[in-house]
Amino acid sequence: MKKVKIYVTLRESILDPQGSAVQGSLHNMGYEEISDVRIGKFLEVQIEESARDIDTIVKEICDKLLTNTVIEDYRYEVEEAN
Amino acid sequence: MKKVKIYVTLRESILDPQGSAVQGSLHNMGYEEISDVRIGKFLEVQIEESARDIDTIVKEICDKLLTNTVIEDYRYEVEEAN
């Protein structure tokens, strides 16, 4: 069994209104040194051994369901599940 | 300037209905080998140099605003921003 960590982030060119709102709140709380906040998703997926290649599975599920590739990028790491 | 990557995950004991829904969708799409999905947040925060210690800032903003420590855990990494 493998554990895959998937990091989904907005593309650089895409505005992040949620991140901007959080940054504004942090400024209001006195954290003036925070100059940028961007918010993405972090997914932990357990995948059992099968005939299919793990990289193929991860790329397919990211492209088809987990991310919107028009506005989001993703990267992932595969680990042995304990 | 530092770039801080913050990973927010639901605690092990907390059910993740959003993750379960995604897992169900993946099964319906034919990815039977996916045995668990858990969804968290991934934040990238740029912090300018100040008199305050970077670890203190990150822990404070996580505890006060970014996470719900009753149901969520977090970990973070500090990098030099390029």
TrEMBL record, chains A, B:
GO terms for biological process: 'de novo' IMP biosynthetic process. One of its GO terms (cellular component) is cytoplasm. Its main location: cytoplasm. The keyword Cytoplasm applies. It is found in: Cytoplasm. Transmembrane segments: none annotated. Pathway: Purine metabolism; IMP biosynthesis via de novo pathway; 5-amino-1-(5-phospho-D-ribosyl)imidazole from N(2)-formyl-N(1)-(5-phospho-D-ribosyl)glycinamide: step 1/2. The keyword Glycoprotein does not apply. Keywords: ATP-binding, Cytoplasm, Ligase, Nucleotide-binding, Purine biosynthesis. One of its GO terms (molecular function) is ATP binding. Its EC number is 6.3.5.3. It catalyses: N(2)-formyl-N(1)-(5-phospho-beta-D-ribosyl)glycinamide + L-glutamine + ATP + H2O = 2-formamido-N(1)-(5-O-phospho-beta-D-ribosyl)acetamidine + L-glutamate + ADP + phosphate + H(+). NCBIfam families: phosphoribosylformylglycinamidine synthase subunit PurS, PRK05974.1. HAMAP family: PurS. Belongs to the PurS family. This is Phosphoribosylformylglycinamidine synthase subunit PurS. The gene is purS.
